[in-house]
Amino acid sequence: MQKSNYMYWYKGAIPNFGDDLSPLLASLISNRRFKHIRHGVPWIKTSKYFIGSIIHHAKLPYSFDLCGAGCIDNESRIFPPNKCYAVRGKYTWQRVEKFKSKKKVVLGDPALLIKNFADKIIDPTIDCSNDFKVSFVPHYTDLHLTANLNCNSVNVIDVRQDPRVVITKIAQSSYVVSSSLHGLIVAQSFNIPALWIGIGNKIYGGDFKFQDFFSSLGISNAERTDVNWGDSILDYINHRNTICKEYKHNSDLLFALEQAFER
What we know:
The protein has helices at about 15-30, 90-95, 120, 165-170, 180-190, 210-215, 235, 250-260, and strands spanning about 5-10, 35, 45-50, 65, 85, 105, 135, 155, 175-180, 195-200, 225. With about 260 residues, it is of the alpha/beta class. It folds into two domains: about 5-110 and about 255-260, no CATH class; about 120-250, Rossmann fold (3-Layer(aba) Sandwich), CATH 3.40.50. It has a six-stranded parallel beta sheet, with helices on both faces. Strands 8-7-9-10-11 form a five-stranded parallel beta sheet. Strand 9, helix 5 (about 180-190) and strand 10 (about 195-200) form a beta-alpha-beta unit. The longest helix has 14 residues, at about 15-30. The radius of gyration is 18 Å and the shape is globular.
């Protein structure tokens, strides 16, 4: 059976490396190039929904396969997928299983696979080894708020950059502080201790996608640390023994996520 080379990922007015991970990682897994489609295009038989909180973007009579994407919240209307192989976490699955309740699915974000393809992603021309070891990865809606924080001695990573650049910088970090979900997930992929922080309240869907992802690791009610204006990011790292957590994943999950995409 011929596999679909069509994929939907979110393309917003502001670039975001988390969204752009979809075509990058999909091409590395499959050795195929994927064509971006606009959601709601009925003539395409089936396309893949791979990474991101994008399930609510699919509209009937559009046909899509779920290979790791998630819901943005618990209220947005969603439609039944053609097939469901993987979703980001158990809270997304609780919403999708009413459509596909008899099928076993993989729970986890495919971005956990990043380290498996590090040799093809890491940009050797980017050397942060002489820079700060603590990296701060703010969500793109939080970027304008970083001026209210003390980021001295911290490497601030702009998620609007090319995903290879962002991943390379995260991979060279010793600790990651992030209000971006995929900042946390990429750190996790490289087994770098990461701290989930909250800065503003403008992330669409609130904490849903974070709790959804952590649920796939068996973590319920993951703790977000809210920072205060004027605080130094390093103040939180200084308590890394109790705050920074290395969320573990296993090789079985990674294998299952890769197989779910290729089905």
